Each structure stands twice: as structure tokens, then as C-alpha cells.
Amino acid sequence: MSVDTSSEWQALVRHKEMLASNSMVELFASDKERATNFSISLSDLLFDYSKNCITADTIDLLAGLADAVDVAGQRARMFDGTAINTTEMRAVLHTALRDRKRKNLMVDGVNIMPQIEAERSRVYGFAGAVRSGSIVGATGVAFTDVVNIGIGGSDLGPAMATLALSPFGDGPSIHYVSNIDGAHITDTLARLDPRTTLFLVASKTFTTTETMTNASTARAWLVAALGDGAVADHFAALSTNQAAVANFGIKPERTFVFWDWVGGRYSIWSAIGLPLVIAIGAKNFDAFLDGAFLADQHFRDAPFKENIPVLMAIIGIWHRNFFGFTCHGVMPYDQRLARFPAYLQQLDMESNGKGVSLSGEPVGYSTGPVIWGEPGTNGQHAFFQLLHQGSDIIPVDFLVAANGFETDVRHHDILIANCFAQSEALMMGRGVSEAEALLLASGASEADAKRLAPHKTFPGNRPSNTFLYEKLEPHTLGMLIALYEHKVFVQGVIWGINSFDQMGVELGKEQANTLLPAVAGNADAEGISASLINAARAKRK
Length: 541
Ligand code: F6P
Description:
Blueprint: H1 7-19, H2 24-30, H3 34-37, E1 39-42, E2 45-48, H4 56-68, H5 71-80, E3 106-107, E4 110-111, H6 112-132, E5 145-149, H7 156-164, E6 173-177, H8 182-189, E7 197-202, H9 209-226, H10 231-234, E8 235-239, H11 242-248, E9 255-257, H12 274-280, H13 282-301, H14 308-322, E10 327-333, H15 340-352, E11 370-372, H16 384-389, E12 396-401, H17 409-428, H18 432-441, H19 446-452, E13 464-469, H20 474-495, H21 506-519, H22 530-539
Helix pairs in contact: 1-4, 4-14, 6-12, 7-12, 7-15, 12-13, 13-20, 14-20, 15-20, 18-19
The structure holds 6-O-phosphono-beta-D-fructofuranose.
């Protein structure tokens, strides 16, 4: 049965009609404790979801929907290693990577826990040696720079986290090259010295065109300076495909593996985290894993109505399926989380951007929203206009630390005030008569006040969540990421889709391979893109 025909879904449709007449301002007025009643703490994190158009009944009904589709059962199956990625027949066990105490977990007759521990200790050993300078380049000098070559899940997680945790960065400088656009690797290499540069080729499949092309460019750059013999000393690989890594010429002792039960966008906890370990050290990476593990325990154990990722998910379902909101904004008031929205874009949109159910039937309802965002306060001076007065309503997640790392706290006070002000303004809005009164008070004529007031009104009643944490430390970041992972999981279960494959990326890749010979001038252009290809060729110099 399709979830939208269930009695739980239909009850929510009716509930929404009843609730629609209540504004959030009224909900706050009728419950003085609303902010605390609709907030949950986990470790140093406070999740405040009070500024949504919900009541306790809404949460009851949404939790009932999660129950009806057996979120708890599917959650148990994910954690125990059942092959819940049914299109690829794979287990989904990124959670096992951060369970540092567990000793046994069988997948296909193999206990994966000793494998995880052994590989993590290899990663830590190598990272430690690079950091201390006991592993050196071909000319005997220590590495000052590490270039991670990868894309998607083999780039976004470590790149996001390296920036996020830069106050803990006490190792070599880490650079990330992902784009096939030659500008990316060229501009990166231009700043580097081959003698002191280590390359990490990060690719789950070790077949991805972008990564393989960038890696071969890096190899050529290194060989031109130091000769063929330097490759073994200056390259390491992070992959599930050991045969392809060996073909590239990377030694087994420089190959760090993970497994097909780790999805690319869930792989930061695996060997894909190596650049982050080199940046911040093993102790900090352990804290990062432990933060995620804490979120896992919370997700497994807390009742749905006190479970942060479940609440994030069901409120998202409420917005997407019952209000029809198409986007979800993520606005970190935290400059070092600048790449967090991009990271979440892959996590959420590659997971839940699906239009067919597990059984292959088209779903008859909306699934994953568009995820986007930028750090505040920059966004305020760019696109927040639309959030406040645009014709579409976009729910927002605000993230902010109570403390920065900087000594001049004036900046941080202003940052926090702005963050809280935005969620308040989005919810409160400003009516036309108030706008008119303010104009008159500021000396405008009656005619001008009437004319301008509609432009200065804010509809309000626009939803947001706020994530407030003590400080952006490794433990907190690990926790935050894992909470979002589980949110995406719960939504996927409710929508009845497979959140763990990404077959929608294939068609474009195939087409690019088909068009390449004509673009490169080795074949005649044919088909839909022929005229564009010919135009491009005519403009090539
Ligand atoms: O094309 C999408 C994708 O497969 C992502 O899911 C993945 O994270 C990325 O490409 C990179 O893949 P790989 O790690 O195998 O190079």
C-alpha cells in the first residue's frame, strides 16, 4: 500500500486543514513554554524546532506515520547489516565505522569489526607518519602539502570537515581537487612543490572519470619533476577497488580500503577520512567518530518524539508533503561550515532524489526537496530577501555555535544575534498596519506610508529549526553529520524509496562518454547535441 493512502497520512491531511488557521505566533502565545517544549538536547547540542507550524498533536500524528511504515524495523535492519540497499543488494553500515567498541558484526559471513579496526589503525599509522615527517617524499623531505583527488562522496565530506575543523589543523596543508575542469588541478598544483606534495587518490570505484583524469595529470606533473620512481612515494589511494589501485601503480601499503557497504556519501568515517586525519590527528578524528556514535545511539534508543533525527525527518515530511514546500535551506552561522550545505546536498539529494518506490512503482507524492544554503550572515545580504518576502516558503535550518574560536567576541555576539533575529523575523513577520505606522513615525507622509507599506510588510509564519551547539569541535561535527544522515534515512523509509543507490547519475555519464569523441574532434557530431558540439568546435582555438 502506498504511504499516502494510509490512514495515518490521511489523518495528517485533515490535521493540516485544521491547523492551517493557526499562526506560529498564536501557537507561541498559547504556550509560554513552547520554545522549551519543542526543543531537545543531545550532548552540547540544542535542537529547537519550536518555530514550525506544529502542535503536540502534529508530532503525534507524524510519529504515528513513522511507526506505520516501520521506521524502527528498518532502522534495526540498517544497524544489523541487512542488505537494505535492495537495488544493489548491499548492507548499509556506515554506522559500524564509528562504533569503536563493538567486536562483532557479521556481513556475508564475515565479521567486519576487526577489518574496520585494522584499517583504521593503518590509516592512523600512515597519517601519523605523514604528520610527524617520518614518511617522506622521494627526495627525503617531509610532506608539507597533501592533495586529495576525489569527487562527490570522496571529496565533499573530508573537504567540508577539514574546513570546519581548521582550528584543530596542525598537520600539513590539505587541498582538494575534484572538478574535471583543468582549472582546478592546474590552480592547485601551481601553488605546490612536487618534492613536498603527497597525493591521495580517493575513489570508491577507482573508475570515476574526473578522479582518474585528475590523478593522471597529477602523476604527470610529479613525474616531470621527480621521475617515474617518485610515484610510489608520493601517491596513496583510498578505495574499495584494490585491483584498479594496483593498476595505477600505487603500492598495497599505500592503499587504504573500505567496503561496498559504505556508500560514497556516507564514507567520511572510513579511509576516505584520511585527509582529515592528516589534518587534525587521530585523537581528534576519534572524537569526530564518537560524536557520530553518540548520535547513532540517540537515534536507536530515543522514542520518536524525543529523537532529533526522527523529528528533523518528520517535520521535513510535514513541510514537503502536506504544505508542498519544495526546498529546504541550510544556513550555518558558522563560516567554517561554509561547505556544509554542499555536503548535505549530496547526502540528501543523492539519497532521496528518487521517483520510484522500492518495488519500482512511481511514487505518487513528492520526495526529497532541493537542499541549498550559504553561511550567514552573507546569505542575509544576498538571497534572504526571498526567504522573507518571496512567493515561496522555504523552511530553514539555522546552525550556530555559542562560542567561536576567536578572541574578539564582538563578532560572535553579532553573529548569534543575527542568527536568532532571522528565525524570529521569518516567523513573526510584520503586518501592513505596523509597517504603515512605522513609516509615519519615521516622518513619511500619509500617502507615502500607504504606498510603501505593502513593500515593507513581511508575511511571517515561515518555519525554521535552530541547531545551537557549544563550539564547532570534532565531537560536535560528527554528531551533526550523523543526525542529518539519520534524518535522510527516516525520510527515505517514509517515502518507501531506496536512499542508498544513485542510479540517476548514470545517464548523463553515459551521454558524456558518447559525446566525447565528437567534442574532441575524433568523430562527426550526431544527434541532439550535434549543433552545440559543432559550435563549440568552431570556437575552439
Ligand atoms: O556519480 C556519483 C557518485 O557515484 C557518487 O555517489 C560518489 O560519491 C561519486 O560519484 C564519486 O564516486 P567514487 O568515489 O567511486 O569516485
